[in-house]
Write a structure and sequence with these properties.
single chain, mainly alpha, 5 helices, elongated
Length: 96
Amino acid sequence: MLVELKEILDIDWDTDDARLERVISRAKNHIKQLLDVENLDTDNDEDLRNLVFNCARYEYNNVIELFDSNFAGEIYTAQVKAGINALKNAKAEAGK
């Protein structure tokens, strides 16, 4: 995700890589908290991946307090998808 975030932020130097890794980690943790999930499947869910990148962008620019309100629609959609997936997983577990 680091290379993609650097492209999004138009960063072509490596001196901020450690900071950007921390930004990505904080963004993932924030999204996990919002969705009440343990893991994020950013490899297979492009909407979720974009949400993490946008959160990281806000974190990097020190305006994280604006993220939740500016992306409320996307967050709500991700919460609904996470809830549906949780129900599907619970149903599959009950069927075993």
